[in-house]
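I am still learning, so would you mind making up any protein sequence you like and the tokens describing how it folds?
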Amino acid sequence: MSNAELNELKQKYVAAGAASPATAFADRAENAEIWDADGNRFIDFAGGIGVLNVGHRHPKVVAAVKAQLDKLMHTCQTVMPYEGYVKVAEKLSHLVPVRGHTKVMLANSGAEALENAVKIARAATGRSNVICFDGGYHGRTFYTMAMNGKVAPYQSDFGPMPGTVFRAPYPVPYHGVSEDEAIRGLKMTLKTDANPKDTAAIVLEPVLGEGGFYPASKSFLEKIREICDEHGMLMIIDEVQSGFGRTGKMFAIEHSGVEPDIMTMAKSMADGMPISAVVGTDKVMDASGPNSLGGTYTGSPTACAAALAVMEVFEEENILEKSRALGEKLAARFGEWQTKFDCIDNVRNMGAMAAFELVSNKTDRTPNPELAAALCKKAREEGLILLSCGMYGNTIRFLMPVTIEDSVLNEGLDIIESCLESLI
């Protein structure tokens, strides 16, 4: 079917809140390129929102899924377990920088992982409160919507949010929130809203995802660890977007040396197959009763096969080094643009997790979300899929596959530069 025919069906049958505004429909893809239903080619700088760090349809992952389909598709692992689930758990236990011996539960999505992380933290501590941060994003289920540090579009139409979720400032010095101010704000939250003796966990992203690709400093993460230890609260690190090599290490928290009690992960864990995980200290993970965690499809055989293949690809193809190298290339180009264009400021990257701000005034750092939207629209018209994000909607973020070929990368960056030249 053509794009036009598919759009007609979309308008008629897909719920407006779930329908993509895009009018081109993906038909096939390879590494960092997508072809639509009409045969048009796009360079992919979005990676399915950070899901495709090893590229669309990595051959090793495709082969693993096909082989699994020939053996077993589903039993529900709580009814009859299978090798893939326990092998993924074993691999993750050795990879994550969580305190002590770790155990794992698998789920289907980042939101499910966060929901279960909170359940586990409550069971382990006997407390109910959770503290999250401004700009954080944790999902679209009801509790994770309440955890999100941004109202629109995630909470706006859905009535009262669940209680016992409290907020603290996230340090973004560029926008006037220093690390000291963020810690002061957190301590004030603990005094005025979330009594420590009733607070199960502090949940944060080591690099904000939807909130703007702002990394937390080593010292800030160390202070969060200290505050959690002081009050007997658990530290939950959300690596759904920043994990699996995006920052040049397997997980972003590794840059700090801080060891959390629980970590969540998803997205690039299985190169597009639906899987997520909660990994935590064994006593914490074992705190809830029998059959208290899981779901019908959690850790499906095919998704586990894909996840195991992805972890092999990381070892065999030196993906972490490629992520660091990609980050250096992006940083160099961003630096050129910051000098060339008055609208580009605050270029930054942690490995390949890279971004810059579009502003109307560099002196006042005035966000320009209109230009960000126009750039993404113009880039799409020129064959480049590009995403914005951030509390002000003015951050351009880069989530292309780490395995992108240099020629395709440079072609995409050239499109951005020419779009900027035409828009300003």
